[in-house]
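Notes to self, HTH cro/C1-type domain-containing protein:
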Amino acid sequence: MANFAERLDLALTKRGYTGAQVASALTEAGIPITRAYVSQLRTGKQTNPTLQVLRALASCLQVSVGWLVGDDYVESGAVDDLQLRAATLGLAASGLSESSLVVLRGVVELARKAEGLPEEPEAAVPDIPEAATPLGDPQRRALGKRLHGLRKAARLSVEQVETALGKGAAAIPAVEDGRLAPAPITVERLLTLYGVTAPPIREYVLSLARGEREAAWHDAQSVPVWLAAAYALEQRATVIRTYQPQFVPPLLQTEDYARAAITVTGPATLGQQTVDEALALVLARQEAMTRDGSAVLWAVIDESVLARSIVGPHVQLRQLDVLIESAKRPNVSLHVVPMDDPVYVPRTGPFTLWRFAEAFEPDIACAHGVESDELITDAAAVEAYHQAFTKLSVTTTTREETVELLNAHRERLSRSFVK
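result:
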């Protein structure tokens, strides 16, 4: 497998960029790096670029991050678990000193001989992917509407944007109308100009600009960009961990319960004007998760959620039935923090953690706030949420105890309803 420096060198050569040009483009896009740093990455003297720099380089050179770091298995999706673990081990070696790498190579050679495997052939740099094909009409329109909304939110006129970028850099009206697809590096600059700094939100918009995905339901202009980014992350996640101390997790809500929860909290928490509009987002989110069906949902709720009455008895009973059914599904792990004598209760509101299949992509946390969600990428902050969830997981009900507790609450509600 070719290393990062070799792939970067190939991409720069084939795309016709100099190190100075790439450094200038990334700096203008809000990711300041120097020509010397690009040269060090290209020659292998620097081996640990941040994920933000990797994504910016990939955007500028019109390749995927996976191709750039040598994750061919990410592109093909046709390798087995052993290959995946081997590739992950290779990524873990990134940044080691040359002397450490020599030792590691020796260990690998000994292991291959011990298992009767042939010597590893000289790694060859794979061909660079073709430059991204032009965006289709739905992609251009979705990207244009998103950029239009971000410009309006930043309170900038078309003239101000074109002046800031430099005359002729981008035809903003044509971009926003969906008639013209801007270069990904131009979108980087626009996002910086519009004050979009959160890496997950930038990546959400850029993945569309690079043509890496089709326009999706959450690309609608009515969905706030922070929420759309969260929905996109959720759909890519392989493991979803969520703590909900107030309501049933949205992915497990019935339609009637979801309507009641939105009515109580207000549709503005989902960036919508009406309850019906907010409910449509919850249902679309559930449909997308059901359609993909590959993610594992690990949910912890407070027992007060089961006792809190925000709907009539019929709706509450139906919601309990759905929770009981969900708790028995193999891809759902539902646990309850007891109201009486809990061992641990975190000093926080609801939050979610996402884990992804790509070996190079770290976990992301999401703190569900009053007016909007905060997407958290800082490693220390994400680890703090992980520790809180781990403590919850080992001090709450087991899967069997959860089903028993849900049935007990259902029986209690049924008796109350009969009376």
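- Residues 72-85 have pLDDT under 50 and may be disordered.
- The two ends are 70 Å apart (CA to CA).
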